[in-house]
Amino acid sequence: MFSYILWCFWSAIQGDVNKKAFEASADIIAEISQCAHDFKINSCDSPTRAPALQQVCANWAKCMNRDPMKVARAKASAQSFAEIFNGFVDALSWKSITVAAAFVLGGLLVSNVAFSKLRHSASVEQPWAHPYGYQQGPPATPQTSRQFSGERGYYGQALNVVYLPASFSPPEALLKKLTEFQFTKRVFQLFCSTCGSHVLARCLDDAEAKDPKVTWDAMSGTLEQFDGFVHLQGHEFINDTLDGGISDFVTAIDGRQLDRWATRPEKSEQLALNWKDPKLAELKSNNDKVHAQCKCGGVEFWIAHPSSRSTHAASNWPDLLRPNAPDNPNNECWWLQDNNTKFLAGTCSCNTCRLASGQEIVQWAFVPTVDITLDAAGTVKFERQFGTLKQFSSSEGITRSFCGVCGASAFYWADDRPFLMDVAIGLLDAPEGARAEGLLEWRTTRLSYREDALGRAKGVVEGIESGLEAYGERRDRDEREVIEERVKEGAKVMVVR
Q1: Tens of pLDDT, residues 310-367
Q2: DSSP annotation string for 290-333
Q3: What's the longest Cα–Cα distance across the chain?
């Protein structure tokens, strides 16, 4: 019935429009005829017409080429709807019109406010595009991030955590691709089941509560962009490192000094640059094997200090890979430093290391397999597959391994240098601290594959390069002072770098 009424209403309007169009068409035809007459007598179709008539002739041509019925129907339609509207308005009082206008304006205002809040929510609460697809849209403001030292020697790398908005909740499709591991009573780490990349952390506000509030963190290395999206605020839990860890390498970003919290941010003191645990002053140097293990203990091994057998490894590659680097035909033992008493350690920012770990910068130690054993006594030889290790081929001829239970990064090796391993430094449980400087010599003059990171995290790259250089200068200066003091005491000292 309603459809029939609409059809009748529309038919009546159409009939009225057709009638008015027919009446108006005579006037339109007269206008067209006049335009054609003016076009002809002014010789607008002549190639020799005056330039001043160009625009006028174009207007006459447009006028005379019109369809009289289309023009008439357009005018008639506008006139008919205007008459209907005017007839409706004329029957209303000013009071009724005012009330109707108030309702219309009120509706527009409410809808605009609602859409504005929706757009704000979409931009702030969904902060970035993510390779796993758990976020959409760029952020309105950068998200806060902190470098987390955590429980020393458990995840292979320092965790770079980005705090996500309280309303964030990852889709079930993403969670099915991840393995969850309980890091503490209130923090659960989620890593890729295939490659071991740490992606998310699920955090409880109260582990003892029946229904605790849940928030989520993301690992910044998995993000497609860092600059302009993440605000690196500082380091936390530096106490766990004993020696300051990589907080001494990354002291400032874009000229802004980073916080250095002993434990939790805002709930502990800030530690000075070059801080070390006071008990390290009593530590005596030794050549004992350095223990290493992941958080769950499923990956455990020991590293011996360098010896003559450490030179037997071979590598066709130069130290700390960089694009277009020369080969190493003479097999120089670049992995041995400080007069062959320490293994080389370095930092890498290549895309593959970043995505395979979920972290901005990855720290590797270069150790011959002959110096790695699976027991403290050194009787069980190293094997590529042991304990809870899982392997992942990141590119042709390159294999990475990680703990399949807790997700800790462990090893990297190449088919063309099978007797030299890259060991994730965060696994080391060295008595002198997280940097394990009794075993390792850190290369501070270069960040490997900086060109991979410059496009997405220029501030981090430049910050760590500047910090590494400054750390190297402080370290060398301190060592020179120690040597000078020993020389004064009559000792003979030889230093080779």
Answers
A1: 988 777 666 655 445 556 666 678 899 999 999 999 999 999 999 999 999 999 999 9
A2: EEEE-SSSSSEEEEPPP-GGGGG---SS-SS--TT----TT---
A3: 121
pLDDT, tens digit, 9 for 90 and up, residues 116-137? 555 444 433 333 333 333 333 3
**Closest to 203 measured CA to CA, from 187, 183, 180, 220:** 187
The pLDDT of residue 479:
75
Closest Cα partner for 160 from 226, 101, 105, 206? 226
Written as six digits, the tokens of 96 are: 């009724």
Is residue 478 within 8 A of residue 243, CB to CB? The reply is no
CB 221 within 8 A of CB 359: yes
CA atoms within 13 A on the CB side of 228: 8
Which run of H or E residues covers position 187? strand 187-192
pTM (whole model) above 0.85 = no
Tokens of 144: 């806060």
CA-wise closest residue to 426 among 414, 435, 417? 435
Cα–Cα distance, 483 to 458 (Å, whole number)? 37
How far is it, in rounded angstroms, from Cα 185 to Cα 203? 9
* Tokens linked to 278: 């006071």
What's the CA gap between 103 and 122, in Å, rounded? Answer: 29
Q: Dump pLDDT digits (tens) for 201-256.
A: 999 999 899 999 999 999 999 999 999 888 888 999 999 999 999 999 999 999 99
Report the alpha-carbon angle 57-58-64, nearest 5.
85
Residue burial 272-310, b: 16+ Cβ < 10 Å; e: rest: eeebbbeeeeeeeeeeebbbbbbbbebbbbbbbbbeeeb
